[in-house]
Amino acid sequence: MKAISKTIQVAVSILLALLILIQQRGTGLGAIGGETGGEFYATKRGAEKVIFRLTIILAMIFCINAFIFPLLPDSE
Questions:
Q1: pLDDT for residue 47
Q2: What is the dihedral of CA 68, 64, 58, 18, to 10 degrees?
Q3: Do 55 and 23 touch, CB atoms closer than 8 A?
Q4: Separation of alpha carbons 15 and 43, rounded Å
Q5: CA 28, CA 67: separation in Å to the nearest integer?
Q6: What is the reported pLDDT for 74?
Q7: Long-range contacts from 44-52, C-beta under 8 angstroms, 24+ separation
Q8: Torsion angle, CA of 49/61/14/27, rounded to 10 degrees?
Q9: CB-based contact 9:65 (threshold 8 Å)
Q10: CA dist list (Å): 32 to 1, 27, 41, 52, 73
Q11: What is the pLDDT of residue 33?
Q12: pLDDT tens digits, the chain, 76 residues: what are they?
């Protein structure tokens, strides 16, 4: 059981790191190459919204798995 939990934790952590790196604070997905200039507030749309929500879901899975891991029985 712990082996499955470890595998899930590694996979979720890699995906979570990638999703966080894709996001840039204050800019949309179109500004990956650099800063856009002026600061403005825009609502998340399309792929940016999906990435944001997926990041939250993966962070929750990561935390739940981290709390449950010590309670799992050792597999032999």
A1: 83
A2: -60
A3: yes
A4: 24
A5: 33
A6: 81
A7: 48/23, 51/19, 51/22, 51/23, 52/23
A8: 20
A9: yes
A10: 40, 8, 17, 16, 44
A11: 54
A12: 888 999 999 999 999 999 999 887 655 555 555 555 555 566 777 888 899 999 999 999 999 999 999 888 886 5
- State the pTM of this model: 0.70
What is the predicted pLDDT for the residue at 40?
Answer: 58
Q: Half-sphere exposure of residue 6, counting CA atoms within 13 Å on the CB side?
A: 6
Reported as type and span, the H/E element at residue 8 is: helix 2-22
CA distance 54 to 56: 5
For the chain, the structural domain boundaries read: 2-26+41-71
The first and second tokens of residue 63, run together, are: 């935390």
Q: What is the pLDDT of residue 45?
A: 77
Which amino acid would we find at residue 50?
A: V
